């Protein structure tokens, strides 16, 4: 994993706005630019990083640094990228919305964190039903992020396999994350074993 933190590309995010310029909302305190961080998940293909930076620059973000973790893949085989930039709170919210509308998976945005963690077990024909698709659709639920996957499969795809998923959910949204996994398991005829909640070990 690389620990090199790159500076923002020359000119990226520089739309002529100075950080002290008043914003269209009249220069209220909420319009004061501050530093924000988004953690993205990108496909390891040429041009993906640049495409993800455009929504930030195009929506008034001033890029500060990019941490491109090429040596550390996510469970879906993608690359985590951490981007720091300056923007007002209003523009920050617009940037996150723009990233998601462009299909960029935002794993974390500012103080929005995946603070709760559950471990689930899935049994069934995971390979035949496209495990990559299963993981992608869990990630598509804004409440959840797949932190780790452990697959146990016999040789070939004829037999049932099992997967242990460590799923991180946003604070207070664990129920929504579990509901999304339940629905997906039912659709794909997979057996889901959920964690016991509220039981002391």
Give the helix/strand layout.
Layout: E1 5-7, E2 34-42, H1 48-58, E3 62-68, E4 79-87, H2 89-101, E5 105-109, E6 116-124, H3 131-140, E7 144-152, E8 161-169, H4 174-187, E9 191-193
Structural class: alpha+beta
**Strands of the biggest beta sheet: in what spatial order?**
1-3-4-2-5
Q: Given this structure, which CATH class of the largest domain is correct?
A: Alpha Beta
In helices, the fraction of residues equals 10-25%
Look up the CATH topology of the largest domain.
Answer: Alpha-Beta Plaits
What is the global morphology? elongated
By CATH's scheme, which homologous superfamily of the largest domain applies? Answer: ACT domain
Portion of residues in beta strands equals: 25-35%
Mean pLDDT: 76
The total of helices stands at 4
Under the CATH scheme, which architecture of the largest domain would be assigned? Answer: 2-Layer Sandwich
Report the C-alpha radius of gyration, rounded.
20 Å
N-to-C series of helices and strands = EEHEEHEEHEEHE
Major sheet size, sense and barrel closure: 5 strands, antiparallel
Number of separate domains: 2
Distance N to C terminus: 35 Å
What is the number of strand segments?
9
| Multimerization status | single chain
Q: Would you identify the regions where 5 or more consecutive residues have pLDDT less than 50?
A: 1-5, 7-29, 197-201
């Amino acid at each position: 994993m690389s620990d090199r933190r790159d500076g923002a590309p020359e000119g990226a995010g520089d739309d002529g706005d100075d950080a002290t310029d008043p914003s269209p909302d009249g220069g209220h305190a909420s319009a004061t630019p501050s530093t924000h961080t988004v953690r993205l998940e990108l496909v390891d293909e040429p041009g993906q990083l640049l495409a993800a930076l455009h929504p930030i620059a195009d929506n008034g973000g001033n890029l500060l640094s990019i941490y491109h973790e090429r040596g550390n893949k996510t469970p879906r085989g993608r690359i985590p990228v951490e981007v720091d930039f300056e923007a007002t709170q209003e523009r920050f919210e617009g940037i996150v919305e723009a990233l998601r509308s462009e299909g960029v998976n935002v794993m974390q945005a500012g103080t929005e964190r995946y603070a709760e963690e559950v471990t689930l077990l899935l049994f069934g024909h995971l390979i035949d039903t496209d495990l990559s698709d299963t993981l992608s659709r869990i990630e598509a639920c804004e409440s959840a992020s797949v932190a780790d996957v452990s697959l146990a499969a016999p040789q070939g795809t004829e037999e049932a396999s099992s997967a242990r998923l460590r799923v991180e959910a946003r604070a207070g949204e664990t129920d929504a994350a579990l509901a999304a996994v339940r629905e997906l398991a039912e659709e794909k005829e997979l057996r889901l074993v959920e964690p016991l909640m509220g039981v002391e070990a």
